[in-house]
């Protein structure tokens, strides 16, 4: 039987043998010439000259021994053929992202639409097993299923790679079927036109243009950035194509003055910063690393007159203004609303840069800053232009300054969420977002970075003081489903989920875990249920998970939210007493009680009843004032020392076993003298 691999080896051996004979012949000839002309056979320079000439001669013979194939431009018919091929599911994905070699191919990207490998007519049993492995009860998209063996064959066929990693595809894997699974939602699939190409034998170089007029939304018509032309290199045989590289032409239509390489501290090697001004109404910015997409920086700006974009970038700077050890970005530009400075912070995660602040001309005037990178850097960093801070006070003072420049309505706080003696820094816009920072090795470790809450059922974030345990409660379907999530710190990046509980608060008649309209409207009492989930990687039974959750539920939880304005926070950092004093709280609660009950003052003055007020506890955050009523009940008022927000709980000895919530909510500042 004819074996192509064996035949190839024989051919290589023959070629190698021919080269050896030629080299030997030339070497003997040159050696003879050398012996005639040489005056000293041991001269090292003479030996070096001989070796150099021999190598050049060998290369000349080697090149002449290879048959040179001509470079041939592709015909219109061939271009149309490649256009059709690369708009098919099998090949379309190879054009989506850049790669410089087969080893760099992102197979999740290539297989985004299945690449024609997805199994058809998957059995109900297999779907059920997949859902069980995910802890889900129904599919929420089209299910793509690819057998592991089919994927391996596909990769080998189109790259020639033989060593394929087990984690080459980040889909869900079910060992029972030795298959990968992904629920796919409707998405735009790029279409391409092969606009030019050339070939040398079986080797092809093709240029493809994205059919940008078909792109959705504001990207329609763009042929730059992620939608720039791409140059694909491959080898084509009679039955397949083997891919070498796909290089997106990032610099097409770029603004050359603001396109450059730059070193950023968080990356090994330079990144490529590309500014596009092809659209006169909108500047686009893309950051590339080693030819691969890293991030887009959005240049939208806002005013009372609406939303616009930077039209021209004037200057760009890179420095670490949020003190986390990674370089951030400042972009100065012009727009229809005047000059703006856009700040972008570097973060951990899938999106390495996020918008931080938009400083318009009025804001820049308020902070005394001119529109230069040096000016922006001076205002943000001042004399703190260093990589590490010697104390948490030094770091938190700097961060408070930066966040106050971002928005002077931001609020701040210090909390002790873990068991050390260094507090954590809290900043946020109450009701909208919050960040949590710890001081580590002279830098900021962001445990939460602008986490949103207050909408969509997200009730905010809490912590159990000095335990390192964090909590979030989130309602779905108006509370029919409630998620309780317990988190802890990671060595790098933000908080990670350890455990979560899904409470089902409706009549789940079909048992799918999600409320239908009929189930939400079902009358009668429902029997609630809960699902317990473990994300720690530990092998735990449900009872063991419940035991941990029960422990966490026993902890006192406090909300993570900024409560001090900027000047108050600076006083706090300086060690000054800030907030409502215990004397103020005591007088205010007494005034409140007297105002609520017109007869109370006479009752107190009669001396016939035991009535008193006292401060039971005070800490940096709260004050608790006890009111002992003439009825014998005990009302405790819990006061936020900064906002003045107050609520109460009631305990009646001999009647109630513990404190009960009341409906009293007010601001104690309204009752201060």
What does it look like?
By secondary structure, the chain is α+β, with helices and mostly antiparallel strands. It folds into five domains: 4-65, no CATH class; 73-245, no CATH class; 250-387, no CATH class; 468-554, no CATH class; 579-671, no CATH class. It is 26% helix and 32% strand. A six-stranded antiparallel β-sheet has the order 27-26-25-24-23-28, covered by helices on one side. Strands 1-5-6-7-8 form a five-stranded antiparallel β-sheet. Helix 1 (4-37) packs antiparallel against helix 2 (44-65) and helix 10 (392-406) runs antiparallel to helix 13. It is globular, with a radius of gyration of 35 Å. 25% of the residues are buried.
Keywords:
673 residues, alpha+beta, 6-stranded antiparallel beta sheet, 5-stranded antiparallel beta sheet, 15 helices, 33 strands, disordered N terminus
Number of helices: 15
Q: Overall mean pLDDT score?
A: 88
Into which percentage range does the β-strand content fall?
25-35%
Q: What is the terminal separation in angstroms?
A: 103 Å
The strands making up the biggest β-sheet line up spatially as: 27-26-25-24-23-28
Dominant shape? globular
The structure class reads alpha+beta
List low-confidence stretches: 1-65
| Fraction of residues in helix | 25-40%
The strand count comes to: 33
For the biggest sheet, the summary is: 6 strands, antiparallel
Count of all domains: 5
Give the radius of gyration.
35 Å
